[in-house]
Amino acid sequence: MTEAALEARLFPPLPASGVKRPEPDWAIVHRELGRKGVTLDLLWQEYREQHPDGYQYSAFCLRYRAVAKSLPVTLRHH
Question: 12, 36, 57, 67 — which has fewest CB within 10 A?
């Protein structure tokens, strides 16, 4: 048995939870992060106040990073 096959048998992939969680408005999250003193943790806490059954912090961050990666990069000159 190969190492990969053994690992697959010992650690099978977890089934999808099937729970639909409320999706934040990522455009607002991205815009708010540009403001002074605003952090992803603070925005997540506000999201969880509105949606107690929403994403945990790690999933919130992973989803935001995926959204942010798809946004165009801009350079501001002052």
Answer: 36
